[in-house]
Specification:
The chain is of the alpha/beta class. The protein contains 14 helices and 25 strands. One of its GO terms (biological process) is amino acid activation for nonribosomal peptide biosynthetic process.
């Protein structure tokens, strides 16, 4: 079992392993293998290059426009080495969205892949790959010590916002370190272990993968996008011992008939998060990896990756059987407290963030320590409860069983693990010329949740609307279908009848 020393920052986790295991593999990505010493040196070079690009100034916040590359991971560590806050950007996201994130987060500089997208983000864009071909960077030995401490921000992630604007979620070092102190020993990784990295850096489970590996001396193994969709082949070809992904990957593998019994004999630990994990999915994965433990993780970005976890018993005969057919989300991590308010899960503790980047987003999202509504005009403290918007119940036995997720209180949905506020997509549609109103609903498909939309208005064409949405929203937020209605149906109160729209979109052709 891996032991965990006291570490105040994300960089501390990596630095301790780099000192203890310099010759062990730290990263495999894009056909390249870096040891801990090699990755540390790469991060130092990128850090020095950032300082040179800023004329000797240490950055406050660093954007990262890189994916599945040495630059992505060395850049992440370089920002942490400098005590800066990492702001991941989506390489497949529209340039306008990335630019909006850069402005909102007050980014000083963006580190980008050598062959990545080019866009005017309003701040310097630096490509370390190209820099290596130019003049020497600042001397690595001249870099100052990382000045960050536990109360500084480790990273800022932007999630979908119900007002039509992404919400910035700042996570402090003490939040993410509290998470790692709980999960790293639980992972039972270490030198020789090989952890998958299926998540993009804009999705917070990527932080768990990186630092569960780098905090224990294990290797982080990054699949190509095609390999993510063929998990059995990836696990076996690359010797993966620890897996982490969204549950829909199981469904995709099952459709390819790849999850045959004992097809992943070397897998020791599997974690699923980002979407509900069904018992059917868990059984299929367990039969393919019978020697491995399976965990279901729960946690919005505001609560730092996962804050509740449930590990299924080794024997399927002992598995719980919630009425909704999903694996429980379990119990809170050490240092985390939960409170049920009319069925809504509310959480506080060491992993809870300190409030949104824009304080106006805090309205309606917190409760006071005694459980009453939070007044945004008052100071937000660590004792306040964060309202997740998720409905949960206790499993069997009713009073003491593990918590089970049973739905949402709002229109938020999960698409490929990403959190989506359908209101943000609707707002983007309504802003298009010719659109009078719009409704976006989520439909359940065999490969996960899919978005579909209905709109009304004269002159608006689905193809033009889809192209406009792709210029504004990430691909996972663009509805699969856009259906024109002469007028959206109304209920007795004169409001849009969302249930009727949902029925019409779920069963087209049935009137």
């Amino acid at each position: 079992m891996t032991t965990v020393a006291c570490r105040r920052t994300l960089h501390d986790w990596f630095a301790a392993s780099a000192a203890s295991y310099p010759g062990h593999t730290a990263l495999e990505v894009g056909g390249e293998v870096l040891t801990y010493a090699g990755l540390a040196a790469a991060a130092q070079r990128v850090a020095a290059g950032i300082v040179r690009r800023l004329d000797g100034r240490i950055p406050h916040r660093v954007g990262l426009l890189a994916s599945r590359s040495i630059t992505a991971y060395a850049g992440y560590l370089a920002a942490q080495r400098l005590g800066a806050t990492v702001v991941p950007l989506g390489t497949a996201f529209p340039a306008a969205r990335n630019a909006a994130v850069v402005r909102a987060a007050d980014v000083d500089l963006v580190v980008a892949d050598e062959d990545g997208p080019s866009a005017d983000l309003g701040v310097p864009l630096w490509r370390p790959g190209r820099a290596r071909q130019g003049q020497p960077t600042v001397e690595v030995d001249a870099l100052p010590p990382a000045p960050a401490d536990g109360d500084d921000l480790a990273y800022i992630l932007f999630t979908s916002g119900s007002t039509g604007t992404p919400k910035g979620v700042p996570v402090r070092h003490r939040n993410i370190c509290a998470h790692l102190e709980h999960v790293v020993p639980r992972c039972d990784a270490g030198p020789g272990a090989r952890l998958s990295q299926t998540f993009d850096l804009t999705f917070d489970p990527s932080v768990l993968d990186m630092f569960a590996a780098w905090g224990s001396g294990a290797a982080l193994v990054v699949p190509t996008r095609d390999e993510v969709l063929t998990p059995v082949r990836f696990v076996n070809d690359r010797g993966i011992t620890h897996w982490n992904s969204v549950p829909s990957v199981i469904t995709i593998a099952g459709r390819l008939r790849a999850l045959t019994p004992h097809s992943m004999p070397g897998l020791r630990r599997s974690m699923f998060c980002g979407e509900p994990l069904t018992l059917q999915q868990a059984r299929a994965w367990k039969r393919a990896a019978p020697a491995g433990a399976i965990e279901n993780g729960y946690g919005p970005t505001e609560l730092t990756v996962t804050c509740l976890t449930y590990r299924l018993p080794p024997d399927e005969a002992d598995w719980p059987a919630p009425a909704n057919g999903t694996v429980p989300i379990g119990e809170p991590h050490r240092g985390t407290e939960v409170h049920l308010r009319d069925g809504e899960l509310c959480v506080r503790g060491a992993q809870r963030f300190a409030g949104y980047l824009d304080p106006s987003d805090n309205a309606g999202r917190f409760l006071t320590p005694d459980g009453s509504p939070y007044d945004p005009a008052t100071v937000l403290t660590d004792a306040h409860w964060y309202r997740t918007g998720d409905r949960v119940v206790r499993g069997e036995p009713a009073a003491t069983g593990p918590l089970v997720h049973v739905g949402r209180l709002d229109t938020q949905v999960q698409v490929h693990g990403y959190r989506v506020e359908t209101a943000e997509v609707e707002a983007a549609l309504r802003e298009q010329p010719g659109v009078a109103d719009a409704v976006v609903v989520a439909l359940t498909a065999t490969t996960g949740t899919r978005l579909v939309a209905a709109f009304s208005g004269a002159g608006a064409e689905p193809d033009r609307l889809r192209a406009a949405l792709r210029e504004r929203l990430p691909g996972y937020m663009v509805p699969d279908t856009l259906t024109a209605f002469p007028a959206l149906p109304l209920n007795a109160n004169g409001k849009i009848d969302r249930a009727a729209v949902h029925e019409a979109l779920a069963h087209p052709g049935i009137s």
